[in-house]
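Obj: model holo form, ligand = heme C.
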Amino acid sequence: MTLAAAALLISAAHAAEPEPTPLVDQQHCMFCHTDNAAFLAPSFQQIAERYRNVPNAAAMLEHKLRMGGRAHWGDMAMPSPAERGGPLSAQDAHTLVQWVLSH
Ligand code: HEC
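Output (holo structure tokens):
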């Protein structure tokens, strides 16, 4: 097995959805978030945990990723897509939220 394949298997075991890396890079998600440790922002595992049993959480989060909204974790709201690296399509927001919630 190549190293790349091994790395893919490890990340697949960690999260059910593969990381949409180009989108994550373009929007600098990992500048503020990590998978499992609260840093400048809640970790993606904390977020997944919080919304696991919340109906319509995915739709709410997709809207928030694209349009912004009130802070749910503290005083600091997330910057808008334009400030993060460029506009975000509904499809891309969906992909990102599915990935975050699969943590
Ligand atoms: C400049 C820092 C920063 C960047 C870049 C960033 N975030 Fe955040 N994010 C935050 C902060 C701060 C919060 C907590 C905001 C709050 O209280 O609702 C947050 C919250 C969230 C939430 C939970 C929102 C809620 O209502 O509970 C999700 C989901 C999320 N981020 C996903 C992402 C994704 C996906 C990206 C990349 C597209 C990203 N973030 C990029 C800082 C950032």
